[in-house]
From TrEMBL:
The keyword Nucleotide-binding is assigned to this record: no
Gene3D superfamilies from the UniProt entry: Periplasmic binding protein-like II (3.40.190.10), Winged helix-like DNA-binding domain superfamily/Winged helix DNA-binding domain (1.10.10.10)
InterPro entries: LysR_HTH_N (IPR000847), LysR_subst-bd (IPR005119), WH-like_DNA-bd_sf (IPR036388), WH_DNA-bd_sf (IPR036390)
Name of protein: LysR family transcriptional regulator
Transmembrane segments: none
Pfam families the record matches: HTH_1, LysR_substrate
Domain HTH lysR-type: 2-59
Keywords for this protein: Activator, DNA-binding, Transcription, Transcription regulation
Family: Belongs to the LysR transcriptional regulatory family.
Organism field: Gordonia hydrophobica
Length: 298
């Protein structure tokens, strides 16, 4: 009979690609991971990893066992959670991931509600953008990720994952108060020129969304200020140095000298809970329900 802890360790090495990353996820040392794999090999009578430079790679037997083992581990975790929930309790671990503005505006209330309703549930949060959250859900490092998908830059979801809609959001244009278009109720994106833009760093989803949204309207934006913080973007706008697009969910205190106006076309996004299709444990369902309630209160 295979030891499940050792099987979990092998699956993590396969998913993360290294002993060190698997050790960090399991909160043990890399030598501890090596010992687990050595014991697994002794149980099987066959090698599951072999040395490759400074690291290791899975053997054919190791890859086969990891493919089969991922489903076994998932089913076992689901069974453990469901058995515990027979007594009316949601117990175990729930690992959230979320993009920045949702983690600030919604996740604290979500976690607090879950801990009130399910005192034996261990809830954690890891913050990142969609391009970071999606692979962590796929590798089972996160159970539920709050992600966004813009109408002008939709998020591509792999077939083994699914989305549960949570909230519809729109972006507004932030202009310096003295800007010639600041007195309008609605500004066409195609009219924008002159000033540079404040945005997130190149390569992030928000940066790509802003650039693509403007280019579809014939505007090739000059990104002068790349900062991972909406409040800082607005400070540059307030001093007459830039324009920016800011989602309503992300709206922080608007400094003096900034005017927010609606855009034409409207820039909308859907915020959803992302999970693996094979991960519908009671803890996950409780987490999604709590997210729905928290977003409904906005």
């Amino acid at each position: 009979m295979l030891n499940m802890d050792r099987l979990r360790t092998l699956c993590l090495v396969a998913e993360l690609g290294s002993l060190a990353d698997a050790a960090a996820e399991l909160r043990i040392t890399p030598s501890g991971v090596s010992q687990q794999l050595a014991r697994l090999e002794a149980e099987l009578g066959v090698a599951v990893v072999e040395r490759e430079g400074r690291g290791v790679r899975l053997t054919d037997a190791g890859m086969l066992l990891a493919r089969r083992g991922a489903g076994i581990v998932s089913q076992l975790e689901r069974a453990e959670s469901e058995v515990a929930s027979l007594h009316g309790e949601v117990v175990g671990q729930l690992r959230f991931g979320s993009f920045v503005s949702a983690s600030r505006s919604v996740l604290p209330q979500t976690v607090a509600a879950l801990r009130d309703d399910h005192p034996h549930l261990d809830v954690t949060l890891w913050e990142g953008e969609a391009e970071e959250l999606l692979p962590r859900v796929r590798r089972r490092q996160l159970d539920v990720a709050v992600v966004d998908s813009w109408s002008t830059h939709p998020l591509e979801i792999p077939a083994d994952m699914e989305l549960t809609p949570l909230y519809s959001d729109v972006a507004e244009l932030a202009l310096p108060a003295e800007h010639a278009l600041a007195g309008r109720e609605v500004v066409r994106l195609a009219e924008l020129s002159g000033l540079g833009w404040a945005s997130w760093s190149e390569g992030t989803q928000f940066h790509d969304w802003l650039v693509q949204s403007l280019r579809t309207q014939g505007v090739d934006p000059r990104i002068d200020f790349q900062v991972a913080d909406y409040a800082t973007h607005l400070e540059f706008v307030g001093l007459g140095l830039a324009m920016t697009l800011i989602p309503q969910l992300a709206k922080v205190s608007v400094p003096a000298g900034v005017v927010l106006v609606r855009t034409e076309p409207t820039l909308s996004r859907e915020i959803s809970a992302l999970v693996r299709r094979d991960n519908d444990r009671p803890t996950v369902r409780a987490g999604i329900d709590a997210l729905r309630s928290a977003f409904a209160q906005l």
